[in-house]
Sequence to fold (290 residues):
Amino acid sequence: MSLSEVFKKGNKGYTIIAGCGRLGASLANQLSDQGRKVLIIDCDEKSFRKLSPDFGGIALKGNATEIPVLEEADIRKANIVIAVTNNDNTNVMIAQIAKEIFDIEHVIARLYDPDRECVYRELEINTICPVVLSINKVNQLMHEA
Amino acid sequence: MSLSEVFKKGNKGYTIIAGCGRLGASLANQLSDQGRKVLIIDCDEKSFRKLSPDFGGIALKGNATEIPVLEEADIRKANIVIAVTNNDNTNVMIAQIAKEIFDIEHVIARLYDPDRECVYRELEINTICPVVLSINKVNQLMHEA
Fold:
């Protein structure tokens, strides 16, 4: 099933987001607003303040690289795992655990270091690299101006 | 003159980048590779290690919010100023100084906090917001999958 099909399924699609920073919280708020089932994990409970008051998902305090935490998050039922903590190594680890141990179909991870992107591609993990996206945006601004 | 025209002019276009982090260094390397005149400013000399050995521009140690540093960088000759330090307030300040005091035509600033984007728009400063770009990319991955 494609990611878009998963999301169209509404409650039947279940997304786990690791890391409740600006990106994680914004994604969680957006997916929740769309009526999708979302669970967000972060070690720091204070980070959940970034979630909207209307957030309809679950916020779980814990380390998303630990198997018992992922089991508590009911990862086996998830179709999508998005790893967006502020640490590339942590995101790599979460993505690999989701893919290899829990056989999650769709895994997306943020990478601050663009040089690592090729590693992820081999592991069939979708990456978001803010530096690459920002460079593309600067180039676009140059051409639009 | 449009940004793309400035860049096409090669040596006649002069770009100042404030902040030699991953994004600043990558942009500096890219613009230098394209034969463009680039100067990059950072408070921390060690950050210049991120520049490519082929970098053909100038690396200036200093605080880009200080007028004398910007004058040393010959800012009056610059067509484009890109503020990409790791601090939003610093980027706001550099962008405003470039626009208001030195009348730089094209100013681009990175913003970690997406809520500030509207302020910049009023000031006619182009913004790059990695969180917004990343959210768009996740949405794109969902639809492409």
In short: Helices of chain A lie at 3-8, 22-33, 67-72, 88-101, 117-122, 130-144. The two ends of chain A are 40 Å apart (CA to CA). Chain A has a mean pLDDT of 89.
